[in-house]
Amino acid sequence: MDIRTVDLNLLKAFDALMDEGSVTRTAGRLAVTQPAVSGMLNRLRESFGDPLFVRTQRGVMPTPRAIELAGPVKDVLAQVEALLRPAAFDPATASFTVSIATTDYALKAVVMPFLAALRPLAPGIRVAVRPMDETRLRGQFERGEVHIALLTPQTTPQDLHARRLFDEDYVCVLRQGHPEAGRGRLTLARFCALDHAIVSLDGGGFVGATDEALKALGRSRRVVLSMPSFMSLLDVVRASDLIALVPRRHVADVRDVVLVQPPLQVAGFTKVAAWHARTHEDARYRWARALLFQSCGIMEEPPPGRKRQRVKDARQRPAR
To answer: What distance in Å separates the CA atoms of residue 274 and residue 117, rounded to the nearest whole number?
Structure first.
C-alpha cells in the first residue's frame, strides 16, 4: 500500500469488519450498502495481499494477518480522529461514554463517588461499568471497549498508564446483635474461634491475607463460607453470626452492621486506575480521569506526555 493512495475509508471499513464480524452489520454501521462493503474489502485484500476475512455461517472471520493489523489500524484511526476533533472541551455539553472495568469493591469505593461528582457537571456523559476480567483486559483496551480499569499495582500491565488512587485496610464486620458486637473489642482468641466468611474473587478460595497474618502468629481461623462479592457478603453477615474482614471504604457509610478493629495487623492493598495510551491525550477522557481522581481525593492529573507514574507495589492483595 502506497501512503499517497491510502483511503481512510478502507481502514474504517476494516476496523468495522473486525468489530462487527459481519458485512451486513458493517454496512449498517458505515451507512453504506453491502456491495459497497464487499468492494472495499476487495480493495483491502489487494492492498494488503491477504484475504483478511473469510466467510463463515455466522459472518466473516479475520485471518491471522487481519488480527495482526487490527490494533495498529485502530490506533491510526483514533489518532486521525483526535487530529480532527476540536481542541476545546466543555463537560456540560459533552456526550460520550466512559467504560470502566471494576470489581464490586471498586464499584462501591471508586465508581459511585465518581458518578456522584459526574452527574451535576456532565449530564451527557454516560458510564458503562464492565466486570473485571484480567485475562481479557488488554484486548478490551485495544478495542476501545474499556477506557479505565481499577486494579492493584501487581495486576496492572506495565504498558498501561496508571495512577495510584489510595491505600486500603480492613475492618471486621459483625451483624447488629451479634454476641461479640457489644464487647467493644475482639480478642485474638475469640476472633479465631468464630466462623468466618471471605471474598474469593477467583471463586472457591478459603485462604487469604488474614490467614497469612494468623499463620505468622502461630494461629488459624475457621473459614466456612467463600463468596465472589463483597456486597453479597454483607447480606450474609447481616443474617448470620458469621464475621468477615472487609475493606474499610466498602462499609464507610453502612449503618446496619457493627464495625470492630481486627485484633491483628492484616496487610491491606493499593487501588490503581489504569488506562491505555490511546486515550491518554484525549481531552474527554483526561477530564473524566481527573474527576475520578478528585473523587478519590487526588486533585491533579499528570501533565500530557508524562510517562506512567510508578505505583506503590506493596505486594499486598485483598483478603480472599
So the answer is: 20
174 and 164 both lie in a single domain: no
Picking from 171, 168, 172, the residue whose alpha carbon sits closest to that of residue 318 is: 168
Query: To 10 degrees, the CA torsion angle through 154, 161, 103, 289?
Result: 150
Residue 205 belongs to what domain range?
A: 170-260
Q: Supply the pLDDT for residue 310.
A: 45
The pLDDT confidence band at residue 3, using thresholds 50, 70 and 90, is: low
* Least confident stretch, 121-130, 195-204, 216-225: 195-204
The half-sphere exposure of 143 on its side-chain side, counting CA atoms within 13 A, is: 12
Q: Are residues 174 and 287 in the same domain?
A: no
Mean pLDDT of 255-280: 93
Confirm whether 77 is domain-assigned.
yes
Is there a contact between 105 and 233 (Cβ–Cβ < 8 Å)?
A: no
Find the helix or strand (DSSP H, E) in which 102 lies: strand 97-102
pLDDT digits (tens, 9 = 90+) for 268-319: 999 999 999 999 989 899 999 999 999 999 876 544 444 444 454 433 344 4
Number of domains in the chain: 3
> 156 burial class (0-12, 13-18, 19+ CB within 10 angstroms)?
buried
Instruction: Say which residues have a Cβ less than 8 Å from residue 154's Cβ, sequence separation at least 6.
Output: 313, 315, 317
Q: What are 47's three cell numbers?
A: 492492498
- The answer to whether 200 touches 228, Cβ cutoff 8 Å, is yes
Average pLDDT, integer, range 40-50: 91
